Amino acid sequence: MERLQKVIAHAGVASRRAAEKLILAGRVTVNEQVVTELGTKVKNSDQVKVDGVPLRKEAPVYFMLNKPRGVISSVHDEKGRRTVVDLFTEEGVTERIYPIGRLDYDTTGLLLLTNDGELTNQLMHPKFEVDKVYIAKVKGLVTNDALRQLRTGVKIDGRMTAQAKAKVVEVAADKKHSLVKLTIHEGHNHQVKKMLQAVGHPVVKLHREEYAGLTLAGLPSAGQWRELKPVEVKYLRQLSGEN
Fold first, then answer.
1. How far apart are alpha carbons 21 and 34 in whole angstroms?
2. Do residues 103 and 67 touch, judged by C-beta distance below 8 A?
3. Is the pTM of this model over 0.90?
4. How far, rounded to the nearest angstrom, does the alpha carbon of residue 121 sit from its chain's CA centroid?
């Protein structure tokens, strides 16, 4: 027997954390009975439904996307805007995939998508400290003092960020903008933008070039995507503590 939220996650409906929310909201039934208890365990013979739709087991799939601007990092958008999942369904991908984490509407770069809820949950767990590398175009000339603050931690939303790696990679010819490479392992809402704002350098453009050691090599254009290689999936599982 397995916990209900784990079964839902493995079916590709949502991450385990999101599955817990579905259960608490009364959207899950087991053998036609609504279940809202997170500790519930189910057997293979039990019929589990989410929003009245029976679970169907999908083979796990894993994708890397070079996310373009103007696309939402979500499965659905209430405002009808294009989502990252739309980029795949338009190309014939039928599995119920969802992004691992998020990139802002106007942020570009590397985003992973999958229907493997367990791996998603592991990679997003803070204890694994998965590195995310960003290139930010910011206003002004970034000083050594600003870099020191970014490296040691800055206060945003009433808390201090963890230590980060930060360096200036380029200064614009007009001396009014800088390119900063920032590596963090946290994933709080708008974190990179808020960190740079906190040291006096608002972000003009933001691009994620690396996630968990994976890069966009081979995906030079925004909107391009590919399946992860088996060795990459194995690496992510090892990184996230999965056997």
1. 14
2. yes
3. no
4. 10
CATH of the domain at 199: 3.30.70.1560
Which residues are bridge partners to 3 per DSSP? 41
Tokens of residue 25, six digits: 């909201």
Q: CA 239 to CA 241: how far, in whole Å?
A: 6
Tokens describing residue 69:
């601007």
Alpha-carbon separation of residue 175 from 88, 134, 141, 179, 182 (angstroms): 40, 21, 7, 11, 20
Which residue among 86, 104, 131, 145 is the active-site one?
104
Separation in Å, CA 231 to CA 47, 121, 131, 214: 34, 20, 19, 11
Q: Which residues contact 167 (CB under 8 A, 6 or more apart)?
A: 147, 180, 181
Coil, strand or helix at 201? coil
Shared-domain flag, residues 121 and 222: yes
CATH number at residue 19: 3.10.290.10
The pLDDT tens digits of the residues spanning 97-125 come to 999 999 999 999 999 999 887 888 889 88
Residues 6+ apart with CB under 8 A from 242: 118, 119, 122
User: Among 38, 54, 70, where does a domain finish?
Assistant: 54
Does 104 participate in catalysis according to the annotation? yes
Amino acid at 53: V
Range of the domain at 8: 2-54
pLDDT at 92: 93
